[in-house]
Design a protein that fits this description.
Length: 142
């Protein structure tokens, strides 16, 4: 049976993405939401896709660091940028994603790609979206 390591609660009030608020149970996150200007809204506030994207990038970066440490591969100067798009087809709204990983420190491209693939296997966001959200992985090194 899995062991719960952490649980958090976030609550959305008001009009959801159209001027509502999202808060966490500990009060550390308290944001006003707005529909992006590119979607015809007023912009000027965050939106659910940005929150999801920030969480995924951070979680994936942690997974990358964990995998690298387990394999004793020095990873320096690493960054993870997540890009999430809200797309619409004839039936529904959906998400697509890209994870763009850069690893410094002079490791070779193949090693970097192996680390990124392993991180994608264990990152909870990647696991949760697998089979539901198309994801493109891009890896670069320097």
């Amino acid at each position: 049976m899995p062991t719960t390591l952490y649980t958090t609660t976030a609550t959305s009030t008001g009009e959801g993405r159209a001027g509502g608020r999202a808060t966490t149970d500990d009060g550390l996150l308290d944001v006003t939401l707005a529909i992006p200007a590119s979607m015809g809204g007023p912009g000027g506030a965050t939106n659910p896709e940005q929150l999801f994207t920030a969480g995924w990038a951070s979680c994936f970066h942690s997974a990358l660091k964990m995998i690298a440490a387990q394999r004793k591969v020095p990873v320096t100067g690493s960054t993870v940028s997540a890009e999430v798009s809200l797309v619409k087809d004839a039936e529904a709204l959906a998400l697509t994603a890209g994870l763009h990983v850069h690893i410094g420190g002079g490791i070779d491209q193949q090693t970097a790609e192996t680390l990124v693939a392993a991180a994608h296997d264990v990152c909870p966001y990647s696991v949760a979206t697998r089979g539901n959200v198309p994801v493109t992985l891009t890896t670069s090194v320097s």
